């Protein structure tokens, strides 16, 4: 593959932009600054852009521990996006598989594989998502059965799918849902007369947030984690 085409593919830029990078001596191949657009790149070539190694890769899959205040979109006029947390080549090619609100923290999955993310977010699929929740008022045991039977959300014509509520403190619980309605967890607690004060997603399907990831940190998914959504 020609070097300029390689740069276009790995960086998501035009050939003219690739030529500018080369002219500005920003590309090294095997440790040597290269300016030739037509240089042939083979599998054993080590190509670097500003010290960052570039490679032709397959689909990308990441988990991120989303901090509070970040939004799950590429552009926002008021808040930073989760994509600024990624120190990778061409983060703009990724999308979020199951968004979180700006004030919700925890597990976010990011990928450039549209079919894979569809298996997570499609309403036709049953993909469990578990959240840790803190609420304003004490939780009553009756809420467990209410959520298990489904609750009516304001503005909705049908009940939510059955949800599992595990009360772990006076105002703390884990809730597992299989849908992704707009602000669903917050609206479910509102439907039983309570208010969510804090919300943190801990699990999507068989993938649990890595305890070693601090807020704002991320890692690649393992092959087993990726494959768990293909079943």
UniProtKB/TrEMBL annotation:
GO terms for cellular component: cytosol. InterPro entries: PsdUridine_s_RsuA/RluB/E/F_cat (IPR042092), PsdUridine_synth_cat_dom_sf (IPR020103), PsdUridine_synth_RsuA/RluA (IPR006145), PsdUridine_synth_RsuA/RluB/E/F (IPR000748), PsdUridine_synth_RsuA/RluB_CS (IPR018496), RsuA_PseudoU_synthase (IPR050343), S4_RNA-bd (IPR002942), S4_RNA-bd_sf (IPR036986). It comes from Photobacterium sanguinicancri. It catalyses: uridine(516) in 16S rRNA = pseudouridine(516) in 16S rRNA. Gene3D superfamilies: Alpha-L RNA-binding motif, Pseudouridine synthase I, catalytic domain, N-terminal subdomain, RNA-binding S4 domain. This is Pseudouridine synthase. Belongs to the pseudouridine synthase RsuA family. PROSITE patterns: PSI_RSU (PS01149), S4 (PS50889). Coiled coil: none annotated. Responsible for synthesis of pseudouridine from uracil-516 in 16S ribosomal RNA. The gene is rsuA. NCBIfam families: PRK10839.1, pseudouridine synthase. Its EC number is 5.4.99.-. Keywords: Isomerase, RNA-binding, rRNA processing.
């Amino acid at each position: 593959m020609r070097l300029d085409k390689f740069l276009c593919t790995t960086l998501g830029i035009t050939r003219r932009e690739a030529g500018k990078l080369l002219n500005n001596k920003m590309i090294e191949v095997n440790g040597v600054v290269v300016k030739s657009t037509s240089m042939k790149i083979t599998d054993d070539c080590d190509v670097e852009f500003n010290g960052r190694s570039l490679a032709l890769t397959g689909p990308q899959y990441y988990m991120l521990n989303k901090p509070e205040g970040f939004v799950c979109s590429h552009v926002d006029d008021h808040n930073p996006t989760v994509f600024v947390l990624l120190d990778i080549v061409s983060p703009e090619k990724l999308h979020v598989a199951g968004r979180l609100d700006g004030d919700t923290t925890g597990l976010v999955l990011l990928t450039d594989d549209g079919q894979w993310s569809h298996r997570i977010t499609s309403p036709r699929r049953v993909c469990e998502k578990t959240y840790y929740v803190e609420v304003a008022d004490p939780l009553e045991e009756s809420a467990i059965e209410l959520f298990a039977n489904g609750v009516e959300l304001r503005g909705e014509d049908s009940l939510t799918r059955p949800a599992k509520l595990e009360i772990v403190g006076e105002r703390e619980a884990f809730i597992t849902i299989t849908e992704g309605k707009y602000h669903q967890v917050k609206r479910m607690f509102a439907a039983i007369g309570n208010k969510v004060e804090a919300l943190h997603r801990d699990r999507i399907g068989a993938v649990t947030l890595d305890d070693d990831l601090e807020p704002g940190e991320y890692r690649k998914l393992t092959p087993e984690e990726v494959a768990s959504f293909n079943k």
